[in-house]
Specification:
This protein is mainly beta. The protein contains 1 helix and 13 strands, in the order αβββββββββββββ. It has a single domain, classed as Porin (Beta Barrel). The chain is globular.
Length: 195
């Protein structure tokens, strides 16, 4: 229950913080749930040209991010900064500069994530790149995805496939990937609901 309370408090802070921005545009909200061995719940709010998001995980951590939004045609650019922390006890873990690039048109969905986790116990870099193509089967998009984490003493890179299914109440996104070097694998299921 403590994690749920912390998520609710963080969600209230997100809505309050974005309301202080004084933007007149209707906010775009997104609820997201990821499962890859633990559950991560996201609440994302875009208001005008600013994004604020809050994440909490059953693995015992939470994160808050904020930054501007730039749009050029079908390309959206999100330079964000954030912090993550452990839920119990509440200890700030990392300062997180981030850059997200998304391009979407009627057939192609492209995304790139770049996150730098800067903390006292060692820094890391996380990346995710994907492209999905639609139109082959109605409501379904497929394509490759690459992601990885790099630290000073280790590298983990996953290569796999991405499948997105639009159910009109949101989107399911599945990723199955593996590490070509050690044979490890991951399965992640994501559900996204705009509201």
């Amino acid at each position: 229950m403590t994690r749920f309370k912390s998520f609710v408090i963080a969600a209230i802070i997100t809505v309050w913080a974005t309301s202080l921005l004084g933007q007149t545009a209707k906010p775009a909200n997104l609820f997201r749930v990821d499962y890859d061995g633990s559950y991560t719940i996201w609440l994302v709010q875009e208001r005008g040209h600013v994004l604020v998001d809050v994440l909490t995980s059953t693995a015992g951590w939470a994160e808050i991010d904020a930054g501007p939004i730039f749009t050029i045609g079908g390309l959206s650019i999100y330079p964000l900064v954030g912090i993550d922390f452990n839920n119990s006890p509440v200890i700030v873990g990392s300062f997180i500069p981030q850059l997200y690039l998304f391009y979407r048109n009627d057939r192609i969905d492209l995304g790139s994530w770049f996150q730098f986790f800067l903390n006292r116990s060692g820094n890391s870099f996380y990346f995710r790149d994907y492209v999905t193509v639609s139109g082959i089967v109605p409501l379904v998009s497929v394509g490759p995805q690459f992601e990885g984490t790099l630290t000073s003493d280790a590298q983990e890179v996953l290569v796999g496939g991405r499948l997105k299914y639009d159910i009109k109440l949101g989107e399911f996104v599945g990723f199955i990937g593996g590490n070509p070097k050690d044979g490890s694998s991951i399965f992640r299921l994501t559900y996204l609901v705009p509201f």
